[in-house]
User: What shape does this take?
Amino acid sequence: MAITQARPGHSPFIGQAMSEDELADLPRDGYKHELVDGRVEGVPTEWVREDVAARLMLLLAPATRGVGRLVGSGLGCRMANGNIRSPDVCFVIHDRVPRGAERDEFFEGTPDLFETG
Assistant: This one.
């Protein structure tokens, strides 16, 4: 995988063809990446977006407790079309949470509820 010169403030991986394994192995460098049609897309990370996501999670937490898992943008979801998306906030009902969900792998499917700034 070749690294291209990035614009300041942008990930050098945006636009590159990549496999799911390569996406999973990208460095945790402060950029949020998604895999769409086999190419890396960058997703904005900014104060306002993160603040909205945090407030939404605080509001949803009481209603979702004991029903499923409420997580932030670190969860990659493999959608039905094969794209890997990382919603800002997502909720998955307990019955759909895979055993050993703490492992570092993508969730198979669309979350039951999600928000993407």
In short: The first strand starts at residue 32 and ends at 36.
